[in-house]
Automatic annotation (TrEMBL):
Keyword field contains Iron: no
Naturally occurring in which organism (per UniProt): Nitrosomonas europaea (strain ATCC 19718 / CIP 103999 / KCTC 2705 / NBRC 14298)
Source organism, top-level taxon: Bacteria
HTH cro/C1-type domain mapped to chain residues: 44-80
UniProt keyword RNA-binding, yes or no: no
CDD domains: HTH_XRE (cd00093)
UniProt entry keywords in alphabetical sequence: DNA-binding, Transcription, Transcription regulation
InterPro entries per record: Cro/C1-type_HTH, HTH-type_reg/antitoxin, Lambda_DNA-bd_dom_sf
Molecular function in Gene Ontology: DNA binding
Signal peptide: none
Protein name: Helix-turn-helix motif
Short name of one Pfam family: HTH_3
C-alpha cells in the first residue's frame, strides 16, 4: 500500500541524503552493482550496427522506409524476401555493404 503524504514527509525528515549518496558512491567504486539490465537487440538491429550505417542509410540501402526498418528492429514486423537476404548479408559480411554504399 502506498505511503500517505504525511508518512512520506516523516520518512524524508529522518533521512540523511548526503550519507546515502556517499554510501552509494562507495558501493559503486567497490564494484557492487544494484541491478544489471541486458537489452536484447534484434537480428536486424545487429546487422545494421555491424554495417555501421544509420537507420536512414540502412533503410535506403534495403529500399524500405525508415518506419519499416524501425518496425523490424522493434519486432513489430518481420522482413521478408529480398530484404531478409540483404540483412543476412549485412550480418555476415558488413564489408560488402560498405562497398555498395561508397
Amino acid at each position: 500500500m502506498p505511503m500517505t503524504e504525511k508518512e512520506l514527509k516523516e520518512r524524508d525528515a529522518k533521512r540523511d541524503l548526503g550519507a546515502e549518496l556517499l554510501e552509494s558512491v562507495v558501493q559503486m567504486k567497490s564494484g557492487h552493482a544494484g541491478r544489471i539490465h541486458k537489452v536484447e537487440i534484434s537480428p536486424v538491429t545487429a546487422a545494421r550496427l555491424k554495417s555501421g550505417l544509420s537507420q536512414a542509410d540502412f533503410a535506403r540501402l534495403l529500399g524500405v522506409s525508415i518506419r519499416t526498418l524501425q518496425d523490424w528492429e522493434q519486432g513489430r514486423r518481420q522482413p521478408s524476401g529480398a530484404a531478409r537476404t540483404l540483412i543476412t548479408i549485412a550480418e555476415r559480411r558488413p564489408d560488402v555493404l560498405k562497398e555498395i554504399t561508397l
